[in-house]
Write a structure and sequence with these properties.
- The protein contains 2 helices and no strands.
- The radius of gyration is 20 Å and the shape is flat.
- The chain has about 70 residues and is an all-alpha fold.
């Protein structure tokens, strides 16, 4: 199972390496503009922020004092 997991992770890394190449090709061909890129980065930032907020709220009370 460990070998299969490592193999799957290697495939993911290979696929992630293709993303910058695809972005560059899309810029060159005119299918992707600068504003599209900024919108994509904004979505990524929002997603990571929401994940961080969700992780930091686990285990806390509902905000009311429990005195």
């Amino acid at each position: 199972m460990k070998a299969a997991a490592q193999e799957a992770r290697a495939k993911v890394i290979e696929a992630e390496a293709e993303v910058p190449k695809a972005l560059a090709d899309a810029f060159r061909s005119g299918n992707f503009g600068v504003m599209d890129y900024y919108k994509m980065q904004n979505i990524k930032s929002d997603t990571s922020m929401r994940e961080a907020i969700g992780k930091s709220d686990t285990g806390k009370s509902s905000g009311k004092d429990s005195k």
